[in-house]
Amino acid sequence: MSTEAKKKKKIKTILVSQPKPEGDKSPYFDLASKMKLKIDFRPFIHVEGLTAQEFRKQRIQVLDHNAVIFTSRNAVDHFFRLCGESRVTVPDTMKYFCMSEAIAYYLQKYVVYRKRKIFVGERRFADLMPMIKKHGNERFLLPSADKLKEDITNQLDSADIKYTRAIYYRTVISDLSDLEDVKYDMLVFFSPSGIKSLFHNFPDFEQGETRIAAFGATTHKAIAEHDLRLDCSAPTPEYPSMTAAIQAYVKESAK
Q1: Strands 163-173 and 45-49: what pairing?
Q2: CATH 3.40.50.1260 applies to domain 48-172
Q3: DSSP SS3 for 253
Q4: Dihedral Cα 44, 168, 100, 141, nearest 10 deg
Q5: Phi, psi of 114 (to 5 degrees)
Q6: 142 by DSSP, 3-state: which?
Q7: What's the gap between Cα 57 and its chain centre?
Q8: pLDDT of residue 8
């Protein structure tokens, strides 16, 4: 089948390699309704927290630090979970540096927000760095997964920030064996780990007519490294979100 023919084949079913959005509002639900699509959600990877015993092997003392850097809500959950399981009482004087407003608000699940010193970035880690530098004399703890973007540690190292990276949780490949006989017109990926999971679960996967949509440069690179065809990419100046890119692609394929 030629590339042109593939583009013109209508897309009716899409599998998004993430958990189903909570609540009734999601751009994916709007996309499904607007374009008359069947969109399913299935996380290809999931997060698994370390046990207190596993954490202790890192020989990291939380109370040796007076500031914590949070880059995700998972980091918040597992930091406070392991503090509880290890019987560590986090002092009221602890400072929290959150990469986004959403992460900062999520802290309310564990601390009385108005009584804590909380510093908030806009979205990227670079937005948070000026505040971290301003408090450069603090001893920072960076709770993270087993895999962390090098960009984060590179920025901290370049600024000579005193910090300890602590692994609190790991990314694990999900079992997708029940999808073996299920076919979708499009698969949507958001990380190299998602691509790794695809081939772990289905070593003989052949793309054929299946369209692949992906978000982010590292995901695009992983797709190329596995000799897959990237049909729909985001973000771009024209389509900053994955749903916008998919909508444009579905329209084009329906012509």
Answers
A1: antiparallel
A2: no
A3: helix
A4: -160
A5: -70, -15
A6: strand
A7: 26
A8: 57
- Taking Cα atoms as reference points, which of 140, 192, 141, 149 lies closest to residue 168? 141
State the virtual CA torsion across 207, 230, 124, 19 in degrees, nearest 10.
Answer: -30
Whether the CB-CB separation of 189 and 223 falls below 8 Å is answered with yes
Burial grade of 95 (CB within 10 A; 0-12, 13-18, 19 or more): middle
With vertex at residue 156, the alpha carbon angle to CA 153 and CA 162, rounded to the nearest 5 degrees, is 115
Q: 206 to each of 113, 199, 210, 226, how far by Cα in Å?
A: 50, 10, 9, 11
Cα 228 from chain centre = 22
Report H helices in 159-213.
Answer: 192-201
Distance from C-alpha of 55 to C-alpha of 135, rounded to nearest angstrom: 27
Contacts 24+ apart (CB under 8 A), 96-99: 96/67, 96/68, 96/70, 97/67, 97/68, 97/69, 97/70, 97/121, 97/128, 97/131, 97/132, 97/135, 97/140, 98/70, 98/128, 99/69, 99/70, 99/71, 99/72, 99/123, 99/124, 99/125, 99/127, 99/128
Sequence-separated (6 or more) residues with CB below 8 Å from residue 198: 17, 44, 187, 189, 205
> DSSP assignment, residue 179?
G
pLDDT, averaged per 10 consecutive residues of the chain (255 residues), comes to: 52 95 90 96 95 95 96 95 95 93 92 82 90 95 91 94 96 92 93 94 94 95 96 94 96 84
- Enumerate the domain spans of the chain: 48-172, 215-255
Q: Is pTM, for the whole model, over 0.90? A: no
* Position 9, amino acid: K
